[in-house]
Amino acid sequence: MSLDAAVLKGSQATHDSFASALASDPAAGIVKHAVKIWAREHGVAEDDIARLAERVMEAARSAIHEQKVRAVA
Question: Please, are residues 62 and 18 in contact by the beta-carbon 8 Å criterion?
Fold first, then answer.
């Protein structure tokens, strides 16, 4: 599986207090570590691995936030 470098180099989303709370969650650290392992096993360039892990975490934060908003509505 190949990854588009342009996607990896996209702008980072603004982090709010919700994002920082998720970042301190031990489970989030495990997910981030697993993404890095997966990326190495699939030939992602070492320079792009940290960026990929952050993009995956941004997607997870967004999905969790959307579900919380839907639950309140």
Answer: no
CB-based contacts of 57, cutoff 8 Å, min separation 6 = 22, 23, 28, 31, 32, 35
Q: 17-64 pLDDT, tens per residue?
A: 555 655 578 888 999 999 999 999 999 999 999 999 999 999 988 998
Crossing angle (nearest 10°) for helices 46-72 and 26-41 = 140
Tell whether the model's pLDDT for residue 12 goes beyond 70: no
Distance of CA 25 to the CA centre of its chain: 13
Separation CA 40–CA 28 (nearest Å): 19
Q: Which residue has 């030939």 as its token pair?
A: 43
SS3 of residue 12 by DSSP: coil
